[in-house]
Amino acid sequence: MEHAYEIDRITGSSHWAKAIEKEMKKVRVAFEKIDGVTEAQMRTGKIRPGYNHCSTHMVFDMKMDGSFTRKA
After folding, report:
1. What is the pLDDT of residue 12?
2. pLDDT for the residue numbered 29
3. DSSP β-ladder status, 61-62 and 70-71
4. How far apart are CA 7 and CA 19, in angstroms?
5. Is 0.85 surpassed by the pTM of this model?
6. Contact 19, 70 (CB under 8 A)
7. Share of the chain above pLDDT 90, in %
8. DSSP single-letter state for residue 60
9. Can you name the residues that pair with 70 across neighbouring β-strands?
10. Cα(52)–Cα(43) distance, rounded to whole angstroms?
């Protein structure tokens, strides 16, 4: 993500920042902190059925569709 933000800074645009923001709105619920629950407790997977701690990474893509649509 740092590299994507750096590209935006160098080019004077916000294309990648907007792509990241759009994607994070869709998945934000997966990253919400549960009040009163420690990270160690979340890692056990016993806090809420169906909720587990997991590490993630973001993939960036650009469509060559004439308007160079960016996706994060």
Report:
1. 96
2. 67
3. antiparallel
4. 13
5. no
6. yes
7. 26
8. -
9. 62
10. 6
Residue 27 · residue 21 · CB < 8 Å: no
Amino acid in position 23: E
pLDDT digits (tens, 9 = 90+) for 31-66: 666 677 777 777 776 666 456 667 778 889 988 888
Question: Among candidates 24, 5, 26, 3, which has minimal Cα distance to 15?
Answer: 5
Task: Write the DSSP string, 3-39.
Answer: HHHHHHHHHT--HHHHHHHHHHHHHGGGGPPPTT--H
Residue 36 CB burial class (10 angstroms; 0-12, 13-18, ≥19): exposed
* Burial class of 19 by CB neighbour count within 10 A (0 to 12, 13 to 18, 19+): buried
- The pLDDT of 1-15, averaged and rounded, is 93
CB atoms within 10 A of CB 25: 9
